[in-house]
Amino acid sequence: MSDIIIKTPEQIEGIRKSSQLAGQSLVMIEEFVKPGVSTEFLNARIEEFVRGHGAVPATIGYNGYPKATCISLNDVVCHGIPSDSQILKEGDILNIDVTTILNGYYGDTSKMYSVGEISEHASRLIKAAKHSLDLGIQQVKPGNYVGNIGFVIGRYAKAQKYSVVYEFCGHGVGLEFHEAPQVDHIARKNTGDIMQPGMTFTIEPMINEGRASTKVDREDGWTARTKDGKLSAQFEHTILVTDDGYEVLSDVSGDYR
Ligand code: MF3
Ligand code: CO
Ligand code: CO
Question: How many angstroms separate the CA atoms of 74 and 92, rounded?
């Protein structure tokens, strides 16, 4: 608890600007997501965009991670490494995750994309992952427990017959990439840290069609896949706890205002 940083108004403005840039990069890339395009092509467009706006991609060199984005296709839960040899095809679903460092401040956001026409079951999973994030966001207000984010997400996912990944979590963000608190996406009611105005953290639930368990690729040491090979979907925002609720710092759509 004591290691959770309460940000100053100046820091919040810096984190807001960085988060907005990360969010804008996810809008910019939309038109490039189509069959025949490589995940490295998408990565390169985002890297150019981020650097062109005076920011640095936070993932490059982070624990040795090589790229400006994580791009996670189909059964990949998170931390997919963009590659020239990975070519999008009709029916694929993918998450693109961007973390920017702008003037020293971190913003972290991700969303799902579909390639051409996707199956009914893939579409239903994507909608549930977005709704899971939104339910989590609605729990953000001073005095509430961080665990209640995971409580409502877990309850909803279970009702939808989906599972929630427990091996990767949301996190404090802003002055560093990964700060306290840890934000579990499946948790017991009224557990964990208490939210206070000025905290900034991500909520980024990974929702699986099948079982929750994941395995990390032995070759690259990063790519996390569902053990059962079924689909996974994720959306992420950077959130500020305000005096009476929340502000979605990485939202550029106006959906949360
Ligand atoms: N952006 C991811 C998150 O939401 C973290 C990626 S770390 C990396 O926390 F090293 F895999 F890039
Ligand atoms: Co994150
Ligand atoms: Co992220």
Answer: 6
Beta carbons of 90 and 73 less than 8 angstroms apart = no
Contact status, residue 38 vs residue 84, Cβ threshold 8 Å? yes
Q: What angle do the packed helices 147-159 and 120-137 form, to 10 degrees?
A: 150
CA dihedral over 177, 29, 255, 89, signed as positive or negative: negative
Query: What's the DSSP call for residue 72?
Result: E
Mean pLDDT of the chain: 98
Parallel, antiparallel or unpaired: strands 163-164 and 206-208: antiparallel
- Separation between Cα atoms, residue 89 and residue 85, nearest integer Å: 12
Q: What's the pLDDT at 1?
A: 53
236 touches ligand 1 (CB under 6 Å): yes
Alpha-carbon distance 97 to 50, whole Å? 13
> Does residue 19 line the site of ligand 1, with CB under 6 A?
no
pLDDT digits (tens, 9 = 90+) for 99-142: 999 999 999 999 999 999 999 999 999 999 999 999 999 999 99
Domain ranges, ordered by start, for the chain: 9-248
179 ligand 1 Cβ < 6 A = no
Query: What is the Å distance from ligand 2's center to 14 Cα?
Result: 17
pLDDT at res. 9: 98
- Tens digit of pLDDT for each residue in 35-47? 999 999 999 999 9
Q: In this structure, which topology does domain 9-248 adopt according to CATH?
A: Creatine Amidinohydrolase (3.90.230)
* pTM to 2 decimal places: 0.99
Q: Would the CB of 65 count as within 6 Å of ligand 1?
A: yes
Ligand 2 midpoint to CA 201 (Å): 8
